[in-house]
Amino acid sequence: MVYPVSYNDYAKKTPLLDRFIRYALIPTGSDPESAASPSAAREFDLARVLESELRALGAKDVTLSEKGVVTATIPASSGAEKAPVILLNSHMDTSPEASCEGIHPQVAEAWNGEAIALDPENKIRLDPEVFPELRRHIGEDIICTDGRTLLGADDKAGVAAIMNAAEWFLTHPEDPHAEIRILFTPDEEIGRGTDSVDVPGLRASYGFTIDGGDVGGLESETFNAATARVTFTGISVHPGSAKGKMVNAAKLAARFISLLPESESPEETEGHEGFFHPISISGGVEHAEVILIIRDHDRGAFEDRKMWLAALVQNFDTGRAAPAQVVIQDQYRNMRDYLAGHENILDLAHAAYRDCGIEPIEEPVRGGTDGAFFSAKGLPCPNVFTGGLNYHGIYECIPAQSLEKAANAVIAILRRSASLTLNS
């Protein structure tokens, strides 16, 4: 068993790691139940920090909108003024699926491959038997949680990598680079990250989201995605006289979930395999609601999934109660559909990775990024790794060395942007 030390006691801090931890300690969880924009006022706390830091670094056109969107510009280096403008984007919010309050980062230094005791008292361990991808990082310094909150590497590692690059090019303007547009967005985790972004107003020709996972990841294919809200209306009667009268909406919802194919759930699928995933069940006797997400890389299979779910609801037996109802809403499409013809953008990233001694690994994203939305709006935007692992929960972590590699890759991409010619 490995017992990590507090980040405060970690001996190998760097400015990049300190920057990441500083951002991670600011609670920015988004709220899917809120109609506000941003969904949680606390998202402004990090946005204001980034706005202030960008101004202090000397970035141009720094803005923080009333919707919590931060933008800035770094002028092109001499001789690269005609190169296509490049966008860098990360999101500031963290997943609402785990607490973001009171984050206490820890570090397992020179990790030896044994389980990491996040919270010894409650026997919460980061175990490579459960998370085998950790084994790729034996010998590295694993930044992890204390078992009570998420860490925030998704996507504050991306934010830190972009800010690190901003500082580099603003203090080394002679280092070749195209004009850089920086964009930090709220509410990505609840599917609203680009709702308040004026894509044409960004004046960028292409870009990269810095929102990926393990080292080497370069993602140009996402899920097709939709949400489904299924509602059940029961019949409430006093329990003492309910026989033959009551219909319990909560029990209807539970029975409905049991009809979803277990083999087509997130925990049973990988690669290009799609799924149905109930993310919320709420209610009582009179009213209950199930919220699901629907995912598939293949467009045809995605449409089939939506039709199958709609038919399941339509044919669901509610007995004496009113029929169940469903509203299905598309969220985003597979980014692959929009990147055809823009292979030279991926070629640029491949070359930049190799400049840093990193071999690119192209795999489908089992999720989505704001880049999928940008790509759909005519701004091709693949996704670059941050180094983080096990997002959206208490087992989230990031090897310190992986974050350093991500930051180096971002700088290398920007260097190569100075000489890129886009396909027409």
From TrEMBL:
Binds 2 Zn(2+) ions per subunit. GO terms for cellular component: cytosol. It is an enzyme of class 3 (hydrolase). Keywords: Hydrolase, Metal-binding, Metalloprotease, Protease, Zinc. One of its GO terms (molecular function) is zinc ion binding. Transmembrane segments: none annotated. InterPro entries: ArgE/DapE_CS, Bact_exopeptidase_dim_dom, Peptidase_M20, Peptidase_M20_dimer, Peptidase_M20B. Its EC number is 3.4.11.4. The gene is pepT. Zn(2+) 1 binds at H91, D154, D211. This is Peptidase T.
